[in-house]
Amino acid sequence: MGTVRFEQHLAAISVAAHRLGEEAWAAGPDAAVPTCPGWSVRDLVAHQGMVHRWATAVVLGDSDAADSPDGFREEGLAESDPVEWLIEGSLELVEALEDAHANLKALVFLKDAPSARDFWARRQCHETTIHAFDALSAHLARMPSANDAEIDPPFAADGLDELLTGFLPRSKSRLRSDALVRIAVSPIDVDAAWLVAVSQEPAVTTRHTSDSGELATAKVRFSGTAAQLYLGLWNRGNEIVTTDEAMLTRWREVSRVEW
């Protein structure tokens, strides 16, 4: 989509990391995380801090550190102040990205990915935003709403685009159908929509404007605000309106991204 710039992704990493830290602090390290069954807040913070440090290592070309991410997680679990440790890692990541050349050569792992520098800024923006929502769920001890999350529509739409055009079409994606099914993902608050063709092969996603006639070919529709769709299709929240509950349930069962 290209509506959220590199600098905005960097700023969003910092905002989301600080919110994650604030919500984690308020919840307490031993609190359960409703959106991540089996995790405590300490597990969540250690995971996010590990991912930030791993991404920093990739950007810096530090192959030894990039090949040993579990060490970062153990470090986070052992920290006396895991929130401070989290923030330190996010600052190091942002600094590495700020200093990176626009034509950085580094690992990317999504379909239709931008340049490596822009890829990592975008990926960590949404990684951290989603996990800040998880920390919020621990603080509230329930599933938050999209309104609770306070995610701006353009950022939510950008995250939807990454999910639908980057993650979903990968060969490892398990969202398949014996017969072709087209799903229209249609936010009500931004001029953007996506048409996802699900078949026995990896999904094929195309971008559209909200008034595109192509969307009428869809058998299934997922709608809501951009934030409701963003969170819901990342298996957070239950505010998506759909014409096919069975397909939405299937999506939630198989479209999970795990470390």
Number of helices: 10
User: What fraction of the residues are assigned to beta strands by DSSP?
Assistant: 5-15%
Strand line-up of the largest beta sheet: 3-2-1-4-5
Helix content: 40-55%
Order of helices and strands: HHHHHHHHEEEEHEH
CATH topology value of the largest domain = Four Helix Bundle (Hemerythrin (Met), subunit A)
**Residue-averaged pLDDT:** 96
Main attributes of the structure:
Four Helix Bundle (Hemerythrin (Met), subunit A), Nonspecific Lipid-transfer Protein, Chain A, 53% helix, alpha+beta, 2 domains, 10 helices, five-stranded mixed beta sheet, 259 residues
SSE diagram, text form:
Blueprint: H1 6-27, H2 41-60, H3 63-66, H4 69-78, H5 82-99, H6 116-140, H7 146-149, H8 153-167, E1 181-187, E2 193-198, E3 204-208, E4 220-224, H9 226-233, E5 241-242, H10 245-254
Parallel strand pairs: 1-4
Antiparallel strand pairs: 1-2, 2-3, 4-5
Describe it.
The protein is an alpha+beta fold and 259 residues long. It folds into two domains: 6-144, Four Helix Bundle (Hemerythrin (Met), subunit A); 160-254, Nonspecific Lipid-transfer Protein, Chain A (2-Layer Sandwich). The chain is 53% helix and 10% strand. It contains ten helices and five strands; from the N terminus they run ααααααααββββαβα. The chain has helices spanning 6-27, 41-60, 63-66, 69-78, 82-99, 116-140, 146-149, 153-167, 226-233, 245-254, and strands spanning 181-187, 193-198, 204-208, 220-224, 241-242. A five-stranded mixed sheet has the order 3-2-1-4-5. Helix 2 (41-60) packs antiparallel against helix 6 (116-140) and helix 8 (153-167) runs parallel beside helix 9 (226-233). The chain is globular. The protein starts with 5 loop residues before the first helix and ends in a 5-residue tail after the last helix. The model has no long low-confidence stretch (mean pLDDT 96).
